[in-house]
From TrEMBL:
<keyword id="KW-0963">Cytoplasm</keyword>
<protein>
    <recommendedName>
        <fullName>Coronin</fullName>
    </recommendedName>
</protein>
<dbReference type="Pfam" id="PF00400">
    <property type="entry name" value="WD40"/>
</dbReference>
<dbReference type="GO" id="GO:0003779">
    <property type="term" value="F:actin binding"/>
</dbReference>
<feature type="region of interest" description="Disordered">
    <location>
        <begin position="52"/>
        <end position="206"/>
    </location>
</feature>
<feature type="domain" description="DUF1899">
    <location>
        <begin position="207"/>
        <end position="272"/>
    </location>
</feature>
<dbReference type="Pfam" id="PF08953">
    <property type="entry name" value="DUF1899"/>
</dbReference>
<dbReference type="InterPro" id="IPR001680">
    <property type="entry name" value="WD40_rpt"/>
</dbReference>
<feature type="compositionally biased region" description="Basic and acidic residues">
    <location>
        <begin position="121"/>
        <end position="131"/>
    </location>
</feature>
<dbReference type="GO" id="GO:0005737">
    <property type="term" value="C:cytoplasm"/>
</dbReference>
<feature type="compositionally biased region" description="Basic and acidic residues">
    <location>
        <begin position="86"/>
        <end position="100"/>
    </location>
</feature>
<keyword id="KW-0853">WD repeat</keyword>
<dbReference type="GO" id="GO:0030036">
    <property type="term" value="P:actin cytoskeleton organization"/>
</dbReference>
<comment type="function">
    <text>F-actin regulator involved in anterograde Golgi to endosome transport: upon ubiquitination via 'Lys-33'-linked ubiquitin chains by the BCR(KLHL20) E3 ubiquitin ligase complex, interacts with EPS15 and localizes to the trans-Golgi network, where it promotes actin polymerization, thereby facilitating post-Golgi trafficking. May play a role in the maintenance of the Golgi apparatus morphology.</text>
</comment>
<dbReference type="InterPro" id="IPR015505">
    <property type="entry name" value="Coronin"/>
</dbReference>
<keyword id="KW-0009">Actin-binding</keyword>
<comment type="similarity">
    <text>Belongs to the WD repeat coronin family.</text>
</comment>
Amino acid sequence: AAQWLKGNNMAVAKMSLDPAKRELGAQPITPRLGPKPFVGCASSEPFSFDKVFSVPQVPGTEQQPANGASAEQEKTEQDSSASNTEPEKTDENSEEKTDNSPEMESTEDPPAEVSEPEVVQVKEVEEKKLEEAEEDRSDGATSIAERRKMYEHRSLSIQEDKAASPTPLRRRNSMKQWNGKEEEQQQQPVDGEATSTAKTGKRTSTVFGRVSKYRHLKGTPGHKSTSIENVRNVSRQLPGECDGFHGNAQRVAVPLAGPGGKIAIYELDKCGRLPDGVIPSLVNGSNIMDFQWDPFNASRLAVACDDGIVRLWLIPTGGLTEPINTPSEELVAHSDKIYFIRFHPCASDVLLTASYDMTLKLWDLTEKSESGKRECIILQGHTDQIFSFAWSPCGVYGASVCRDGRMRVFNPRKSTQPIAEGPGPVGTRGARVVWALDGEFIVVTGFDKVSERQISIYQKDNLSVPLNTVGIDVSPAILVPFYDEDSSTLFLTGKGDSTVFSFEITDEAPHICALSHHRGVSVHQGLSFLPKNQCNVAAVEFARALRLTNNIIEWLSFTVPRLKSELFQDDLFPPTRVTWAPSLSAAEWFVGVDKAPGKVSLQPEGMACLSSIKLSAKTEVGKAAEAAPSLEAIPPPHPGSSMMFRCDVTKQREKDIQKSLSARMEVNLSKIEYDTENGVDEEEWEG
């Protein structure tokens, strides 16, 4: 500013934007070239693409490398630069010794610690030496080829000999002990795997884990001609303890909306569209709480009402033709509302009722006292609402789930108090319980604190902790379970769901294995499974159910895909438990008699068994192998012709196999249609 005020004028300086020119002059400089792409470097080292694509650093700005790479870099610089003197070599050797000091520590005692100022001084000296060496090399390398060679060696020194993984440094004295420990650790899991595989011989998969025969089960709705249509006025106001829909091999029971406690009865052999008008039904006169068919009498239906009375109805042959309001028998079970009712699975005329008074009662429907009252067994121990009760397959034990979050196991004929107790579902919406694996495990469905539907499995002898718990989804509907003993398959669904969940229950972890779920087209109000003798074994059907939608009752078949469906699949259909006939009477059961249900085979007459076919095929193959000449039985020929003889035997076997196959194949030597056709007359070709 002072110069301008005095009157001095100076021209504005100009600068060149050409990057090839110096800052203080117009004379261009020679650019420093790096290695050309896809051109091998002039060195004895093996070629690698990592070296070609590596980006070299600018000379003079290189930082001091780590201990592991400094020694190698100095070696390459020593080879490339001829201007280095003997003192520099000694310095490099000393630096190599200091760099290799960790290796020395592995064999010798560690040196004394160096103070911090000395380390800083050593670093400064090394940096100065590196800068001087760089200046000498850059001055001496005047040609482009020398500069490029310097860059190549610099990049090679950085990229070579990378350690695969850092390994901890140990003394030689401890290496023997460490190697011994590693060998022991490597041998231990191998032995454990061998023992585990020897114990379990079940099929496993590396992708899906345990292989199940029912993994790809398929649910198929029945044909429209077998369904019942125009089902009207279905009730949706039943309590959560009621399944809402029940059926047997002959007929189904559907609760109707409105007053009077009506239940419609539909015959399964009368398929098609129902006529409009009055629906033939059972009029109970009170609100329905629960209902269930007698498992040993397809014509008897038990209905529990909110007045504490259980009404027993007998359906006439051919079904109902009009509404009726007079039951065949009434049982005054409780003075309060009834939650649910359950028939005994083995003994006839044994009925269990659960009431709002938090008691369970067992009734003998055949005996009456002089006053008209029946004797019963009262089970106690519940402190809140009882959600569900299930009999064990043998009919000796029973399990209940309560609103207080406890699960209890009873032996009714020996004690009115529970013999075992443990934690159950914590949710208060509802729960269900069912026995599995021949009564050794108990499966409970319920909710957690955030209303997620869950499945838990317990061991009968230990109810303190569940073996496994599986979450499904969040829904207000209670999961109603059905367990198939023969396939160990658990079917689950709820009111308003469109999916039938399928799980396999096993005695090994994780105990609950998911199968293929069936997803219907529309939602359903309930599902009722039929006994095993109602399955179509010829179609590989292992479970059959009736499905109630908003206005249709249809069949639902669960099958397993098999190639040889014309054979009886005995691996899928073992001898099944007879659940459609009683094994003892009510009087025998109340006295204390136990009799397990019998088992029958589901193999149809005239249908071959799959295992027998496989066994016969194995025996035929074994006989053929024994009849065929073996190479070991043939005496060894001369050394010069041994290979030729073996080739002749192999060719002879191939010819025998071809002859056997051609003998089995049928050759059709009849004329084909083309032989009988007439060609074009020769006169037509003339023109």
